[in-house]
Every structure is written in structure tokens, then in C-alpha cells.
Design goal:
Blueprint lengths: L6 H10 L6 H8 L4 E2 L8 H11 L5 H21 L3 E6 L7 H9 L5 E7 L2 H14 L3 E3 L2 E2 L15 E6 L9 H13 L6 E7 L4 H7 L6 H16 L9 E8 L4 E8 L3 E5 L4 E5 L4 E8 L3 H10 L3 E7 L5 E7 L1
Parallel strand pairs: 1-12, 2-3, 2-6, 3-4, 3-5, 6-7
Antiparallel strand pairs: 7-14, 8-9, 9-12, 10-11, 13-14
Length: about 325
């Protein structure tokens, strides 16, 4: 029997490692037509860092627009929400914008319990450090979770809850999936609990396209990082140089569509899945949608999920909106 200290032993140990929880989704997506990969795979430690870089790009208006709303209206939002809330932020990332709201809430209650929830432990570690430095009246309790496993963690948050879902992350879900996701959140809440939802609004393609395909190529690297992650975690052999980042505006579906397009015919082997994937020249792997909304669209998804829209705040250009809804 080989011992784990030698190369043969190390190889055997690697072979015995079980596939990560998302492996079945990758298998299903890459054997379907058209091919897809789940957008949640963007957010490993490298992807989370790249996304933080994206939010600072001149083309990426979303974060600046949402931060403008929070800076202008955080006090009003806190007053509307009321005191005594435990704040749960879904998909918190590094909580770069959240302190503006947490500080406003802290002016209305002695201490603000804050539960950042994300799939990336690295992002949560940064979120904790940032919030503890900038918001001393906030107690931070990070939660690592994959929303695909539900929102049962909300039951562990005591008292009155304010759930934040910022950044227009809801736009990554198709409408029916967005409704189902928000309904699952609603089922874990009590009457009077609140949801603060961020949505990107419909605008001209000349503004949308550069936001998802920047001149510096950071978004392209972010998109390709999903293949880098599969190479590392599923022992695949994707050649990243043989794919191009593709961003398209679909006005009929009101969404940005993101793809990885194959430059030439190739065969990719994913060792951990025992899968070979044939890709034709020009074939696309769909990695993300980002839906853009009107207010009636937002009201519809909230209502069907069981929430009642209470108030909406906009940035000065009305490019982005924050919506407060009650369970």
C-alpha cells in the first residue's frame, strides 16, 4: 500500500477525493444543448476578487448607482424599516456598500446584529473585517451557504429580521426562478419582517454592453475564471485561450446574456466527472443572465413571492432602484 508522503500515495489520495457539491450541475449543464454552467461558480476566491475589481470599473455603473441611493437615503430607509432589526445580507460578498446602511440603522438601535451570507468564505472574511472596522456598533456573524440548499439559516436569526439582497443579484435568476427564490425566503420570515431588494433597471444597450464587457478585459477574466475553477477543482483541461468572453443584450427577454464562446473545435476532458465534452467552433457555453427591470416587473415578482412592496428609492439617473417590501 502506498503511503501518502510519496507521489503515488498523493495521486491515490487525490483520486479518492469526492466531487464538490456542484459537480452534478456541471455535468448536467455541459451535456445539455445549449451548454450552460451555473453562475454561482464565479465566486471562488479569485472570482470574488475579480468582481470587486469590476465594481470599480468606469463602465460598471451598478455599484456606484446603488451606493448613491444608500448614501442619499440610508437614513430614510432605516426610519422606514424601523428599529430592532437583525440584518441578514444574502450574497453579501465583501459588504463593500453595506456599512452605509448599517451605520444608519445603528443610529436607531443600540447594536446591529449583522449576518452576511455568501458562498465564498474568502469574501465573508473580508466582509467581517470591513464591517468590524467601519461599523463598531455592529456584531458580525458570517454564514457560508449555497442558496440552492434553501434558506433554513434564516430560522437561526432571532427576532425581527431585515433581509438585504443588494446589487441586483436577483437579476441572475430567470423570472420564475426569482419568484421561487424570493418565495423560499418569504417562507422563513414572520409578518413584519422586511426585504430590501436591489434591481437594475432597463436602459439603452449602449450603457449596458460596456458594463458587461469592459475595455480592460476584467469582466472577460471573471467569466473565464469559471473554467479555471473547473480545471482546479474537477481536474478539467480547459484551455482558457481558446474561449472568448461574449456579452449580448436580449431586449425581448429584458436581460444581458453572458457566454464563453469556443474559438475552434476542441475536446475537453473533466477527469473527476469522467466526462469528455466536444465543442464546435463558435459554440457557446452560457454562464450568466442579468435581468433588467421596470417597477411593474418588480412589483409582480414580489407580489407572487408573497411580499408587499412598501417603498422604492432611485439613484439620480433612475438607472437603479432599492425596494423595501414586507413579509
Amino acid at each position: 500500500m502506498a503511503i501518502l508522503g510519496d507521489p503515488v500515495g498523493q495521486m491515490i489520495a487525490r483520486e479518492l477525493i469526492s466531487p464538490p457539491p456542484y459537480a452534478e450541475e456541471v455535468l448536467r449543464g455541459l451535456t445539455s444543448r445549449p451548454k450552460t454552467l451555473p453562475f454561482k461558480l464565479f465566486y471562488d476566491h479569485v472570482g470574488s476578487a475579480l468582481f470587486e475589481e469590476i465594481t470599480a470599473l468606469p463602465e460598471y455603473y451598478l455599484s456606484r448607482s446603488e451606493l448613491e441611493i444608500l448614501r442619499e437615503f440610508a437614513g430614510e430607509i432605516a426610519e422606514t424599516v424601523g428599529p430592532g432589526n437583525n440584518v441578514v445580507e444574502l450574497g453579501s460578498g465583501t459588504a463593500a456598500k453595506t456599512c452605509t446602511l448599517l451605520q444608519a440603522l445603528a443610529r436607531r438601535q443600540i447594536r446591529v446584529p449583522y449576518f452576511p451570507v455568501d458562498i465564498s468564505p474568502a469574501a465573508l472574511a473580508e466582509a467581517r473585517q470591513r464591517v468590524e472596522q467601519q461599523c463598531p456598533l455592529t456584531s458580525v456573524r458570517p454564514v457560508v451557504a449555497d442558496f440552492g440548499n434553501g434558506f433554513g439559516f434564516l430560522r437561526d436569526v432571532p427576532g425581527r429580521r431585515l433581509v438585504l439582497y443588494l446589487g441586483s443579484s436577483i437579476g441572475n435568476f430567470d423570472p420564475e426562478a426569482a419568484i421561487a427564490m424570493l418565495r423560499s425566503v418569504h417562507e422563513e420570515l414572520a409578518p413584519g419582517d422586511a426585504l430590501l431588494l436591489g434591481t437594475d433597471l432597463i436602459k439603452d444597450a449602449s450603457i449596458l454592453l460596456p458594463a458587461y464587457d469592459d475595455a480592460q478585459g476584467v469582466t472577460a477574466e471573471f467569466n473565464k475564471n469559471i473554467l479555471r475553477r473547473l480545471n482546479r477543482e474537477l481536474r478539467a483541461n480547459f484551455d482558457l485561450s481558446l474561449f472568448r468572453h461574449l456579452a449580448r443584450w436580449n431586449p425581448h427577454s429584458s436581460r444581458m446574456e453572458i457566454y464563453l464562446q469556443c474559438k475552434r473545435p476542441q475536446s475537453v476532458h473533466i477527469r473527476m466527472l469522467q466526462l469528455s465534452v466536444e465543442l464546435a467552433a463558435g459554440e457557446r457555453i452560457h454562464t450568466e443572465n442579468s435581468y433588467k427591470y421596470t417597477l411593474p416587473m418588480v412589483e409582480t415578482i414580489l407580489c407572487r413571492a408573497g411580499f408587499a412592496l412598501q417603498q422604492t428609492w432611485y439613484d439620480s439617473r433612475k438607472w437603479f432602484a432599492l425596494h423595501l417590501a414586507r413579509a
